[in-house]
Amino acid sequence: MATIVDRSDPLSSAEFVTVDPAMTALVDRRHRKIADWLKSHQFDAALLTDPANQSWLSAGADFSGAEMSGPSTAMFVTPESRVIVCHNVASSRVFETCIGGMGFQIKERPWYEPLEVLLADLCRSRKVVLDRFGPLGEARTEAFRNFRWPLDDHDVEQLKMGSKIITHAVEATCRGWYPGKRECELAGEVSHRLLKHEVTPVRVQILADGRARRFRDWAWSEDETTSTVTIVAIGRYKGMHCGVSRTVLDGPLEGSFAEAWEKLALVLGTAMFFSLGSTPLSQIWGKVARIYEKFGCADEWEMAPQGELLDYGRISALITPQSKVAVPARGAIFWRPSIAMAMAGETVLATEEGARVLTHSGDWPTWDVEIKGSHVPVTAILSRSE
Questions:
Q1: Domain-located, residue 75
Q2: What is the rounded CA–CA span in Å between residue 254 and residue 132?
Q3: For position 1, what pLDDT does the model report?
Q4: How many domains does the chain have?
Q5: Which domain of life is it from (predicted)?
Q6: Final residue belonging to a domain, choices 116, 147, 178
Q7: FRET label pair with 201: which of 37, 66, 68, 354, CA 20 to 30 Å apart?
Q8: Are residues 114 and 235 in the same domain?
């Protein structure tokens, strides 16, 4: 008979996860960023309710618990202290598994009392800045987003690790596909491969047999797949987001599908090639839009978003013709162009020296496209006829 293991007792000091001094120092540096900004802008405190900013300040902690849609916590930050505000249901888990030994304090309230009452008490008689619009202070959303830019070495390392896991999950699911599998089965397979490696699925799309032509935001259904499948996945690993898309085809690539993919390869190659740190997004977009126009499909980019800046936020800045921000000196971009039923998606790390594709596994077919005299490898379709 199996012995019942009881994990309900509080951890002893010897059982806590060993505190990494480098992580604590990183959190301290990020706290100082906020503290210096508060002093220079004459604020007493900052109230953080955006999960992206909470994760950034805590160096990647996930406060959501069982609620995968987002945390039910807040952070109250002054130049001298950083406080987690939460209900009693979450306080032990947050302290023991998220921020133990990292210099945070915790204030809690019973689960049946509104957290807003405690937050209002903390903000009373103080000049408070908010990272989201709300009644307790002045919102400065862009300022807090800019704290997360450019990505530092810790962020890049987590992004690289997450990219490998997410790319493998999508490619392995594509390789295991066969006609007759249902879209929902494939969604489950991708999600399973992500979750078992501690990657939270944020967006999963299974677009079979031309669905993308009309429904670029399709998720999945119970329908069986027949001839082709595109899988799109965006996941969060240690706070950092990454996206990738792959397509598998049961047969040769030909006809209008091949024509769409030839155009799409040049669009994606152009987007990746010009993804340079400190470059205005509108400038990069102009080069991408010209490729759409060159091939007579300028209306296609109006069907769905083409890309976004990623970090601790799922979408930190959407790439549009009117984008007013620049790529950070070191930032992540998820490009996801589409033409008719053809969809592609890669995450690149943009730096001032050039762009590096993080979602190339080296184990998937590619095409070479020539951009400004340079050969840019672009992910191709996995065709079962090859």
A1: yes
A2: 49
A3: 57
A4: 2
A5: Bacteria
A6: 147
A7: 354
A8: no
pLDDT for the residue numbered 14: 56
- The CATH number of the domain holding residue 302 is 3.90.230.10
Position 8 in a domain: no
Claim: this prediction has a pTM higher than 0.85? yes
Pairing of strands 374-379, 366-371: antiparallel
One domain for residues 333 and 264: yes
| Percent of the chain surpassing pLDDT 90 | 88
Output the domain CATH number for residue 51. 3.40.350.10
Same domain, 115 and 226: no
Task: Report yes or no on 136 lying in a domain.
Answer: yes
Label residue 133 exposed, middle or buried (CB < 10 Å: 0-12, 13-18, 19+): exposed
* pLDDT tens digits for range 219-263: 999 999 999 999 999 999 999 999 999 999 999 999 999 999 999
Distance of alpha carbon 287 from alpha carbon 281, whole angstroms: 10
Residue 67 has pLDDT above 80, yes or no: no
- Residue type (1 letter), 381: I
